[in-house]
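Following the same procedure, sequence and fold were stored together, as reproduced here.

>
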Amino acid sequence: RPLAGMSVMASEQTSRGAPGRGSLLAGSTDTGEDGSFHLRFAPAEDPDATYYTVKCWLEGSVQEVLDVTAGREDLVFVVPPIAPVTLGVVSATTGAPLPSVRLAWRDLGSRAHAEMYSGLAVPTTSTGAIALQLPVGSIDLDVSPPGHATTTVRSRRVPEGGLSEPLQVELQVD
C-alpha cells in the first residue's frame, strides 16, 4: 500500500556505482498521500553522465537506489514493516548506563545504513534505554558512544511484534 509522509532524498554520486553523500545533496521531498514523490534537480553539466543515489526512509526503515538518472519515472521503494525495540546501552567495564550513543542499522543484504538523527548522538534515559522502531527481519546494528569505537550487533532478528526484552549492548568507553 502507498505510504504518505516518507522522506525522500537524492544526492549526487561522485561516479557510477558510488553511493551519493549528503554533502552533495541534489534534492529532498516527502511522499504525497498516494505515496508518489517528485524531485527536481538543478541542471547537470552532463545529464547523461550524472547519477544520483536516492534514499527514502520512514521511522526505522531506509531504502536506497544507486545510479538513478534525471528524468527516471519508474522508481518504486518497497518498505518492510517495522517493530518496536528497546536498546539498553551500558559501559562494558562498569555497567553504568551511557548518556548518548550514535546508531546505524541495515537490513542484512543491504548496503544502506539508516542513521538515526543523521548520525548525531541520541540521548538515552537514566537507565541507558533508547526506544526504536527497526525493520522486521535480520539486521546489523552499529552502536557507538561519541568519541569511541563502534560495536556491531550482527544478524539480530527483529520479530513482527518487536522484542519483548530490551536488547542490551555493552560498549567499551573506558
The radius of gyration is 18 Å.
